[in-house]
Prior knowledge:
Blueprint: E1 10-12, H1 15-18, H2 22-27, H3 30-40, E2 42-44, E3 51-54, E4 88-96, H4 102-120, E5 142-148, H5 149-154, E6 185-191, H6 194-208, E7 212-221, H7 254-258, E8 273-282, H8 284-287, H9 292-299, H10 336-339, E9 351-352, E10 355-361, E11 367-377, H11 384-392, E12 401-411, H12 423-426
Antiparallel strand pairs: 1-3, 2-3, 4-6, 4-7, 5-6, 5-12, 8-11, 8-12, 9-11, 10-11
Helix pairs in contact: 4-6
Amino acid sequence: MPDQSIPEARVPLDASNLQGDTATREGISRRRLLGTAGATGLVLGAAGGGVGYAARPAEATPLTSLGAERIEFHVKHQPGITTPMQARGHLVAFDLAAGAGRKEAVALLRRWSETARRLMAGEPATQGDTDVATDAGPSSLTVTFGFGHSFFARTGLEKRRPVALDPLPEFSSDRLDKARSDGDLWVQIGANDALVAFHALRALQKDAGAAARVRWQMNGFNRSPGATAQPMTARNLMGQIDGTRNPKPSEPDFDQRIYVPEGGDPDWMANGSYVVVRRIRMLLDDWEKLSVGAQEDVIGRRKADGAPLSGGGETTEMDLEKTDAEGGLVVPINAHARISRPDQNGGAAMLRRPFSYHDGFDADGTPDAGLLFVCWQADPLRGFVPVQRKLDRGDALSPFIRHEASGLFAVPGGAPEGGYVGQALLEG
C-alpha cells in the first residue's frame, strides 16, 4: 500500500536535486514516490521549478464503512443479543465492593449506561477519556449489562430475584474455576475494532470506581466482517462451522424463545433475556489428531460446508434415520449435532452468540484456546439446562472439550431514553 504518512513532504523530482540531500535520496525510493503520486495526486511546479508536492486530498475517501456503523443504546432489547457477531469482544464480571449496596449500584448503573450510550454513538467517555479510540467511529460497538444471583442479596433485593436465576446444576464434564465464574454484575462488550472494544472496557472499569471491582475478564474474537467473499456462518477454532441452526429473529416464535414477555415474572425483566456464559477449552492437540472424517462423525456435519452427513447443504434438514449401505446410521447416534437439536430436547432452544479465545500456551505447549460460549434464552431451565444435560450424558464431542468457567445472568430489557439499565429493578 502506498505510504501516505507524509502527504505534505517536499519531494525532489530529478537526480540533480537528489544529490544535495543524502537522507532524502535514501529515504524516498522511486516506488514510494510514484505510489505517493498515485495515491494523492502530484502537483508539478511551473517555470521549471523541478519540485513537486504530494498534496492532501480535499476530502479523504474512507477505506470502508465498517467504522461508521452505529448501534443504538436505547432500544427495546439490550444491544449485543441479536446484533451480528463482532470481530472483538470482552466479557467481564464485577463484584460490588465491601459496604456497597443498592444506592451505589444505582449510581454505578447510571454511569455505565451513560458511558455506553456515548461510546456506542462514537462520542468520548463522560470523564477522563483516554483517547484510545479517537480516530475511529463506533465500529458496531455494543455494551450489554446483566445481574448475577449474588447481586440481589448484596442490594437487599432478594425478593425480586427471578427463579430462572437459580444456580445451574452441576454437570459431570465441568472443571469450573470459581474465581472465573459467576459475579454480581456482568458486562459484554463487542465491536468490529479492537481499540474501540478496549476503549469501552477501560472506560467502564474506570467508571466502576470504588463501587465495584473486577472479578474476572475474558477476551474473545471472531472473523472480521468482510473477510469472506459472502456472508457465512462463523467457524470455531476446531475449524467447524458453528451456529447453523441458531434461532432467527424472523421466526415467529423467536421472541418467546429468547425474551421474557411483558407481564412476565418478574415484571422488571420484561423484554430481557437470560445469558449463560461458559469458558469452554478445546483440547485442540487431541482434536487435530483425528482425520477429517472422524471429526465429521463427532459433529455430524461436513467440515467443508457444514452440511449434515445425511446430505444436502448447510441449512438442509438433517435426516436422523438415514442409513448407509451396511445399515448403520449416517449421522452417528452420539454426534453433537444430533444430540443438541431442539427436536431432540423437547423443543429447547437458545441463541448462541460466542467468541473464540486464545490465552497463550501451557508450559508443555498445549494451547489454552477454545470458545467463550454465550447463549441467550427466555428461561435457562428450558433452554441451556436440558440441552447440556443431554450432551453431558453421551456427546461425542465431550472428550475434546472442557468447561472451565460458568456464569448465569439476568439481562433486563433496554434502557429507556434518559434512563439506565436495570432502573425498573433498582427503583421499582
